[in-house]
Give the backbone structure.
Amino acid sequence: MKIMKFGGSSVANGARIKSVAEIIINEEKTGKTGIVLSAMKGVTDMMIESAWNAEKGKPEYVKIIETVRQKHFEAIDTLFPQDKKEEIKNTITEMLHEIEEILHGVKLLKECSKRSMDFIMSFGEKLSCKLMAAYLTALSYKATYIDASENFIITDNQHGSATVHFQQSYENIQKKLKKADGIPVITGFIASTEIGLTTTLGRNGSDYTASIIGAALNAECVEIWTDVDGVLSADPRIVANAFVIPELSYQEAMELSYFGAEVIHPYTMIPVVDKKIDIVIKNTLNPSAKGTLIADKVKRHTTVITGIACIDDVGLINVEGGGMIGIPGMASHILGEIAKAKLNIIMISQASSEHSICLVFKVQEAEKARKILNQTLQFDIKNKKIQNIELKGDLVVMAVIGENMRGTPGISGNLFSALGKEKINVFAIAQGSSERNISFIVGKKDKEKTLNTLHKVFLEK
Ligand code: ADP
Ligand code: ASP
Ligand code: MG
């Protein structure tokens, strides 16, 4: 069995949905497939926006839901024959009516908890999958709609970005898909707790859904269909010369996606690594392109680095003080406070003088982290062990990644001298001992120059 996941851009409108259906039908001729879909492009954002409006008591929330309805109706109008439009339009209307009632409740309560937000967001995927299942049926192919928040993928109750309980999920998936008639059309991104509360797997999480299902079924392969020809050597919107990377190891793909290559969610590789199931990134707009194969054993690249990625809008906290030198437990104390506050550290660096520790966060979390450290390290500040807790914003994290970097001397030297020549200032550096990744911080204003300079030096012949 093959699992095929189509992202929001692939189901953005009627014409795109038609191409996706053609790809599915073609595949179904050669073997069994399971389909995972994202919400139509922009719909998850609209659901979030309408929930925020409802929470603030703004009547705009109704208009946003109306826009969601129109988007689906327009697709239906281009896809379905006249006599089959009404039924699917009624289904969509009923689902949106349910959401409006929930949003009305949010408005009355003036509160949208993370739990409610997950439920509201889940409608994006439910709507797109209902539509696709109905369309395949209208084309005379048997299709079964499967809601992944109903006894399917089971998670803990960390709403917004829940942790998957694999064993239980695998059993549910196997059971349900065995019974499914025809092509299963499964909602990406959404799951539920053991007691049936809807959860989500984090933004962009439909890729992860596909690989969880792939692993549960020991699928031959998981295909992630998107709007580019594969994983590119850098973000194509910034680096015009970026090219498709034909093959990537699981680890390289994880590193690239963790550091901002949004073409695939970083967790996607987790379920399939042990089972050595291949992931292939394909382009819905150009199905004949080979795409990128992400696998256990891949061809060695001819370049030292494989790709460059970048995380926007980060803040760097520098905890500095002479009194930190040689004191055991200081890093653990600092990291412990951050962990208690459930803030996510993107990058850590400590020079061997131990004079300072640098922590990098997404900008929204950086200010919270600074406040927490200021409060909880008061004792050390008063005792002058720590002189300064400084927050610097307007930064980006850059990462150069590549399996060939391991054991190759001189990369850091080349990298930083190339940046030096371009007068790009580097604020902090970290290299994992896997040697597959060197990450560093530069100013937001230097982002494009850094990406293009490094791409030219390391990846363009
Ligand atoms: P989907 O809707 O299919 O899930 P996404 O928008 O999540 O698609 O991801 C695809 C987009 O990721 C591409 O359109 C591209 O602009 C962006 N992107 C960023 N970095 C990379 C990269 N290194 N390789 C390919 N695409 C990238
Ligand atoms: N619809 C969700 C999002 O926009 C999940 C996904 O597209 O993968 O984040
Ligand atoms: Mg995506």
Observations:
- The chain has two domains: 2-295, 307-458.
- The chain has a mean pLDDT of 95.
- The first strand starts at residue 2 and ends at 6.
- Residues 7-10, 38, 204, 226-228, 231-232, 234-237, 261-263 surround adenosine-5'-diphosphate (ligand 1) (CB under 6 Å).
